[in-house]
Prior knowledge:
The chain is α+β, with helices and mostly antiparallel strands. It has one domain: 3-Layer(aba) Sandwich (Aminopeptidase), CATH 3.40.630. 26% of the residues lie in helices and 34% in strands. It is built from three helices and six strands. The protein has a six-stranded mixed sheet with strand order 1-2-3-4-6-5.
Amino acid sequence: MKITIKRVGENSIIGSFIRDEFSSHAEQNNIDMNYSKFCFVAESDEDELLGVITGHVIYNEVHISDLIVKKGYRKCGLGSKLIAAVEETYTGAGYEKVTLSTYGFQAPAFYEKLGYRIEFVREDRDPKLQKYFFAKPIT
């Protein structure tokens, strides 16, 4: 059998393969995969998109993938409200922690202010590109 490796865009067949294989491997190890994606948005009363937070839940954690607030609306509490929406939604739902990562030029101090603790920092020659891995317990 000849095997070829090639780069492709994700599609429904690949998405199904990933879900099925992850699920079956977790089940073989008596783990509930418990996977779903989430997305919360902040909109103005004129339906202008001002911010978005995305991520997924898997196993026993909630992972924030992206938090983006539109320029001009940063440092106004919108990011904190989006984080709070995620935390409130999943608190008491059987998850143990919220996790995320950010770079030095982005928002490490912001997450610390919200009670997230640094689990690991991956150093880089450029401090702006150091990557911070955070977690916060939820009950």
